[in-house]
Amino acid sequence: MSGDAAVGGGGAPEANGVPPNVTIYINNLNEKIKLEELKKSLHAVFTQFGKILDVLAFKTLKHKGQAWVVFEDVASATEALKSMQDFPFHNKPMRIQYARTKSDVIAKADGTFVPRERRKRNDEKPEKKQKREQHHDVSQVGLGVNAYPGVYGAPPLSQLPFAGAQKVMMPEIIVPNNILFVQNLPHETTPMMLQMLFCQYPGFKEVRMIEAKPGIAFVEYGDEGQATAAMNHLQAFKITKDNQMLITYAKK
Length: 252
Description:
- Helices cover 25% and strands 19% of the residues.
- It is α+β, with helices and mostly antiparallel strands.
- A 4-stranded antiparallel sheet has the order 2-3-1-6, with helices on one face. The protein has a 4-stranded antiparallel sheet with strand order 8-9-7-12, covered by helices on one side. Strands 4-5 form a two-stranded antiparallel ribbon.
- The radius of gyration is 20 Å and the shape is elongated.
């Protein structure tokens, strides 16, 4: 049962013949990105569409350039698929479809989960199993819940140096301009994570972070109007469940 396609819903249209479900399969990702960096970046950009239960990616050669994002509901997965299709990630457009196989985290929730060992014992015949493996589709990989250490793929902030001492600087009255000042970022935030968030809005140029001052960043746009639009969309965005971004104009 656990190998069946995830349950669709809401009358959403099928994508590539796969019924809508809570897990999206992403490929054509940049293979040079480190695994943990990839998972954190994907979580950061997809969390705007709804609650994420899991993000999965693997080091194995046949799974490179691929990932799976498990949402709490089908509507969130559908919105993410529509909105982020062909989104440029390190100069490569993401290809997204619904996952063909139900993730373990969902199978456990609906009572259809079958442990890996039992699945092997229940296979009909070795020759049939071999034939299935020869026609194996990478988008049908089993999504093990234990493959991903945590929702955000990073240690708790309490285990990071100076995490408890981070302070939010209260901004002065600053004239609007094309550079944004972003605060209250978790210490594990990387320029790539922020780029995936801010490059969705027109005019994005670059993200600058200061290694000696974790928790803050500067994001530059082509003009003041573009910077303002991005700020309005991402103000108070939760890059993790405990960190709401505080965005102001940078002091010039």
